[in-house]
Structure of Phenylalanine--tRNA ligase alpha subunit:
Amino acid sequence: MIDKIKELIAEAEAFKAQSKEEVEAFRIKYLGKKGLLNDYFAEFKNVANEQKKEFGQTINQLKKTAEDKVNALKEELESKEEVKGIYGDLSRPGEPIELGARHPISIVKNQIIDIFSRIGFNVSEGPEIEDDWHNFTALNLPEYHPARDMQDTFFIQTDPDILLRTHTSSVQVRYMENNKPPIRTISPGRVFRNEAISARSHCFFHQVEGLYIDKDVSFADLKQTLQYFTTELFGKSKIRLRPSYFPFTEPSAEVDVYWGLETETDYKMTKGTGWLEIMGCGMVDPNVLENCGIDSKEYSGFAFGMGIDRIALLLHQISDIRLLSENDVRFLEQFKSAL
Ligand code: DAH
C-alpha cells in the first residue's frame, strides 16, 4: 500500500491544470471529504504496528504534496487571468497594422504645390465663405456685370454680400491686399457652384490659383511657367494658349495640353483632337492690381487657375467625379501606393 501512495505522490507532483475547474477536481480527488487521503487515514488503524510510522509519514507527505499543488496552481491561474484582463490573450498573433491612403485630391494638390515650390511659389489660403468684394468686385466683376453669371453662386440667404466662393481667385485679392510685390503664390482650396451633380461636375470641387506679380512680368514668362508645370505634372511639354475671356485678366487664355491620341479609347478624353483643356490664365488686369492697392504702372503679373478634381480624374483614370466625395473606403484604399 505504501508503494501505491508513493505513486500517488509522484502523480500529484506531475499534475498540471489549465483551468480552475481542473484544480478543483484534483483537490476533491485528493483532499475532499471522500477523497483518497481520508480513505488512507481511515486505513491507518488496520496497518501493522511496525509499518505505522512509515505509513503515517507517507500519507502526510501525500497530503502536503496535494495541498501545495492546489495552492501553486491556483496562484498561477489567477496571475494569468490578471494579465489576460489587461492585455488580452498574449499568445494570439499580432494585429496587422492597417496602412492608410491619401485622398487622390490631396495627392494631386501636393504634387502641384511641390512643382511650383521648386520655382519659388509659396502657398496661401483664404476663407471658403467669402464676401462679394473678394470673390467678384475686386476681380473686375462689379455688380450687374454679365460675367457673374458664368459661375452660379451659392449666396447666404440672409446677407447677399456673403457667399460661398466660386473660385480661388478670391485668394489672389486677399494676398495682394496683404503683401507687397514681388509676389509668387499658389492658393489651393475648395470652391462651390450651384450646378447639377453628374459624373463630370459637382457643386463643390477644388482649384489651385496661381499669381505672379513683379516688375516687367510678361506673357512669355507666363507661357514658360505653364510649360514647366505641364512637363513636370503630366510629362508633356507641348501646350497651346487659346484666346479667351476672364474679367480679371487681359489678355486671357485657355491652356490646352497635347495629350496625344494613344489613350483615346472611348473618344471622350480629347474628343479625337489630342488636346486637353487644363486651365485658364492671363495677365492680371490693371484694374485688379489697383483694386488691391498695387501700382499698375510699376508692376505687372500673370495669374492662372485650374481644377484639381479633373486633373485627379485624368491622372488616376477615375471615371466619375462623385467618387471623390463619397468616401467609399473601397475606392480610397486604391491610392495606398500613391505619393
Ligand atoms: N477663376 C477662374 C475659374 O474659376 C479660373 C481662372 C482663369 C483663374 C483665369 C485665373 C485666371 O487666375 O487668370 O474658372
Notes: The mean pLDDT is 91. The two ends are 80 Å apart (CA to CA). Residues 167, 169, 209, 246, 249, 280-282, 303-305 surround 3,4-dihydroxyphenylalanine (CB under 6 Å).
